[in-house]
Amino acid sequence: MTSMIVTQAEGRVGQIQAVLDYIHQNISQRLSVEQISLQCCWSRWQLQRVFSEMTGLNIAQYVRELRLSFAAEALLESQTRHLDIALNCGFESEHSFSRSFKQFFNCSPGAYRLRGERDGLRLPLNVMCFGDKLKDRAKKVVPISIKLRAKSQLHGVAGRINGVLSTDANFAQQVPLIWQQFHSKVSASGAPRSFPLIGVLATVDADGGGFNIPYWACCESQGESILDGLTAVDLPSQLYAVISYTGPISELHKTVEWFIFDWLPSSGYKGLDGYDLEVYAADFDVHSDKASMEYWVPVSPIGNS
């Protein structure tokens, strides 16, 4: 039974990877769901359902966001005319391109080029695979985007951990303890828990072995009653690769390892020492097997300092 389940799972992710490869190779061409469905075993309706379940996106949305992200890169890296960029990225006219661009990036192509900063980019999806033995191997599609986060000040409770790359990792034990201290202080303030939560891992202060890294359990709230007794944490403006994660929080480290060892080397981006962020919604349930959060990793495009 286990072998059959593994075979079925591998067949599904193999088909999705084939679909993703086809989209990426033909992103500048006209693409329809009917045409894409010819590259796999599913009908148009089946493909849309499976794709949505595995990626959280519908196919038309993914193609559109990917084209717009490629266009944004072209705006920053060249002086090519907007019309030519639009046509090269699969848009039928400069007008439709500009309208879609503004809807996605909240600014015009000209304003994005003038600002000169990468932000809000949808990166091509890839199937994540981890585990050495066939029966233990797991695969899933992990959405990653590129976002610019402005300079900010958070407030939280400080601690220290041995990180995911340490030979004596203790983050699974220490991080919950630091969050318990945070929630205890917030509860004592009498303030309701209705604000986003952010874990901050100061890799900029980590040693070569990943030991004794500063970690803060933080919130973004500016309410004075909440801030009483919390430590201020200043974050610089930074470009981040944002990993969308859904699953048991105890398994998050596997996705982070996959990002570092497998995704980053061929991504066109370089990881930086800085402040890794764990971003949680106010209603995040640490005990849920389907909890959703984001892991933000400081990056810079290859060739940039």
Q: Look at the structure and name the CATH superfamily of the largest domain.
A: Regulatory factor, effector binding domain
Return the CATH architecture of the largest domain.
Answer: Alpha-Beta Barrel
What does the average pLDDT come to?
86
Q: How many runs of DSSP E, i.e. beta strands?
A: 12
Oligomeric state as shown: single chain
Low-confidence stretches: 1-9, 132-137
Q: What's the CATH C level of the largest domain?
A: Alpha Beta
Number of helices, counting only DSSP H or I runs of 4 residues or more: 10
Query: What is the N-to-C order of secondary-structure elements (H for helix, E for strand)?
Result: HHHHHHHEEEEEHEEHEEHEEE
What structural class results from the helix and strand content? alpha+beta
Q: Into which percentage range does the β-strand content fall?
A: 15-25%
* Total domains: 2
Describe the structure.
- Strands 1, 4, 5, 6, 7, 8, 9, 10, 11 and 12 form a 10-stranded antiparallel beta sheet that branches. A two-stranded antiparallel sheet has the order 2-3.
- The protein is globular, with a radius of gyration of 21 Å.
- It has 10 helices and 12 strands.
- The protein folds into 2 domains: 125 residues, Homeodomain-like (Arc Repressor Mutant, subunit A, Orthogonal Bundle), CATH 1.10.10; 159 residues, Multidrug-efflux Transporter 1 Regulator Bmrr, Chain A.
- With 305 residues, it is of the alpha+beta class.
- The N and C termini lie far apart (51 Å).
- The longest helix has 24 residues.
- The N terminus is likely disordered.
